[in-house]
Amino acid sequence: MKLFETIQVELGERSYPILIGNNLLAGTGPRLAQMRPKCRCAIVSDDNVFDAHGKTLTDSLDTASIQHTEIIVPPGEKSKSMATLERVLSDLLDAHLERGDLVIALGGGVIGDLAGFAAAITRRGMEFVQIPTSLLAQVDSSVGGKTGINAPQGKNLIGAFHQPILVIADTDTLKTLPEREFAAGYAEVTKYGLINDPEFFSFLEKNHQDIFSLGPTLQEAVARSCRAKAAIVAADEHEKGMRALLNLGHTFGHALEGATEYDSGRLIHGEGVAIGMALAFQFSNRQNLCSIDDVERVKRHLAACGLPTNPEQIPGKPLTPDALFNFIAQDKKVSKGKLTFILTKGIGKAYIANEVPPAEVLAFLNEALKE
Amino acid sequence: MKLFETIQVELGERSYPILIGNNLLAGTGPRLAQMRPKCRCAIVSDDNVFDAHGKTLTDSLDTASIQHTEIIVPPGEKSKSMATLERVLSDLLDAHLERGDLVIALGGGVIGDLAGFAAAITRRGMEFVQIPTSLLAQVDSSVGGKTGINAPQGKNLIGAFHQPILVIADTDTLKTLPEREFAAGYAEVTKYGLINDPEFFSFLEKNHQDIFSLGPTLQEAVARSCRAKAAIVAADEHEKGMRALLNLGHTFGHALEGATEYDSGRLIHGEGVAIGMALAFQFSNRQNLCSIDDVERVKRHLAACGLPTNPEQIPGKPLTPDALFNFIAQDKKVSKGKLTFILTKGIGKAYIANEVPPAEVLAFLNEALKE
Description:
homodimer; alpha/beta; Rossmann fold; Dehydroquinate synthase-like, alpha domain; 2 domains; 11 strands; globular
């Protein structure tokens, strides 16, 4: 195992490296001082993450004589709001950061999306650094430049594409991550195998226990996930084409999140994606696109990792096919009234289906939820 | 005179045309239907502009069978606020615009900045069309992709670079523009001559009366201004270098606006720029960079066009050198504690001076305001 690994996201003048390994957080200060001499930093984090990792980061900045200020918001999805954004923007402006200074996002997906968006729109774009501290953020949300907040009309409806200048994925920060959060992030890891890398899916089937116990294969799983995402983002930065493949499981997943009112007691994003991927495979099978063996293999692996694969596993009031269908019809990936889904011809054979008939989706949901 | 003129802003995949001429507004619908078949539109405008020009635009959209919705905000700089932005975002989301649909900014600089920014951050970037209806917007703010709102900490501190896909500058819309607004916009026209085109400045000296009476040279003045701005923007989209030349007169101008608390009864932006350009020439002369003849020629032309050239012409309580200096020191164009100014070696010979000693600026202001 290498000490740490560097993956370059190739986006022309917006290219940047992702560093993956352990004990990286403590080296942040000297690294930033080298990249942006005399920079000052604003750290955006949440109470929980800052309690766990803030001191390591600020000590490291102090070592490199980098001035810093901290903007700490409450943990949880509710911070992806206009009100919290306004507070972060105001604090960033009060800190009198100038061009050449940096915003550091220290936290999970919520912090990365919020801080990245605040950086995107402060003084028409400040440079920022992602330090993802959850598995989900390390393998997904910190890579690719999607930033934003939620609107009353839906999730992530207000935002921007804004690439970081550096991502530091320190796998040591996952030690403090609750098991449920780890499993949810792992759903996105699995996704990369299911999209276009059957060999990686086999690797995960073989090594998931080692990965869940933060063993030596964890770094490889994170690195391969980041490499997969980086390749897709490099080919289609603004999601005009193949980047939509990353939404495998997400159309059903978002509908499940919507129908459970984003109640994290019932469902968190990665769990929705796990069920969503299982449903995408089932729906593909129903359309005679993929074998039932592949459906079963996907569900077996997710279940072995403690992830749900069926809407009925969600605690609370059962979800109805109609409710899910309404959320799907409202989804922002709907284009000109036709439904777009990521369907699959088998493990590692996902593709973008642009003209899925809404009636077939509803019929499928009626079957799937009756099982 | 050509019927209308097209200037292409060359920005790779973000390139777009600016159409300049009369009677263009009524042709908007068919033009958009050709560019984006089956698009729907949200028009963002203010009460005054929509009263004057809304029907021409909506009739034209109806003719082309383009569905549209209207989002009307109060006129004036106060609409460049977080509160108004939130309302526009909410209305855009409620309109269920999809990818391929358009936001149309119909109005002056405030509307262009607000609507452009709302488009930039709705669904991580919607396409938008600028239809500038003030001279200032036609020659300056609608070209180049700067969008944003004001923060309590200062103007335009929250925003994004977001290029329109089309700019329609219909000179007929200037017929309803108050004379004071026209003159203020003309200050920016003059600026392009002063930056790097002495021949254009001579053209303006010769034709300003015709331009102010909306005569045949108006279209040429607007077109040459847009061409000048487009060339600079194409060379430096994100203001990392020479785009700063467009700030000629703006460092002093912003300080004057700040010191008069953005009270439009006392000073509007273009007037601040006029005085600011006069001060930039005087300061350059004091630094032995440009001749007193050039200073006098600039002031004479601005005065002939009814523009102020001296802070003492601003009505209300006299401004102090210290107050202006404080605003300059806070300006966002300050970099690492050194002052950046656009200075000049004469008419058409502006350049970026990165290390202007603050003490010399203060000494100059003390002299200039004692005159």
